[in-house]
Design brief:
The protein contains four helices and six strands, in the order αββαβαβαββ. By secondary structure, the protein is α+β, with helices and mostly antiparallel strands. α1 packs across α2 and α3 crosses α4. The termini are far apart.
Length: about 170
């Protein structure tokens, strides 16, 4: 039986409702964590590109929850995803940002990807970047994809997986 336009709209709304619910579960989990740590922070929930986005801002100690190169943030994101999965029964792709670290990192990596792509275009030599997290690699791949004449791919095994940028065509 074919879906009507209304049923399709309801499916999209229920998908967004699920993401909002994931964000609420994550927010509650992170609120308890902040209470245990006695850290201040405002939790903001959003839905963007088919994913729940949870941000914590405003506290003095929040950089400690980011850690060196985002290592603590990545671990907290995984723990939060597990808490959401346990409560909802669904695997979550939720993204956590703390003290704006991911947005700042996204800006740096976009610049790195664009600059590297232009260097490869000029020199013709492929460039292998240092190992990165999946989040970091995606940002670099997206930046490289916006430069005509070059392409990128990931090589290696986690946690040493690297982006390689090369001339295409």
């Amino acid at each position: 039986m074919a879906k009507t336009a209304q049923q399709g709209g309801e499916a999209a709304a229920s998908g967004e409702d699920q993401l909002v619910r994931e964000g609420d579960i994550a927010g509650d989990y992170l609120e308890r964590l902040l209470d245990v740590l006695d850290y201040d922070g405002d939790i903001d929930l959003d839905v963007e590109a088919g994913r729940a986005i949870v941000s914590i801002d405003g506290g003095e100690d929040l950089e400690k929850l980011v850690g060196d190169r985002g290592a603590v943030l990545e671990a907290l994101q995984e723990l939060t995803r597990l808490a959401v999965q346990q409560a909802s029964g669904n695997r979550s792709r939720l993204m956590l940002d703390i003290a704006g670290w991911r947005q700042g990192r996204r800006d740096e990596l976009t610049e790195l990807g664009t600059r590297t792509a232009k260097e490869v275009l000029d020199s013709g030599e492929s460039v292998r970047l240092r190992p990165m997290t999946p989040f970091e690699r995606k940002v670099v791949h997206d930046a490289v994809a916006r430069v005509r004449g070059v392409a990128s791919e990931s090589e290696g095994e986690e946690p040493r997986r690297q982006v390689v940028v090369f001339r295409s065509g």
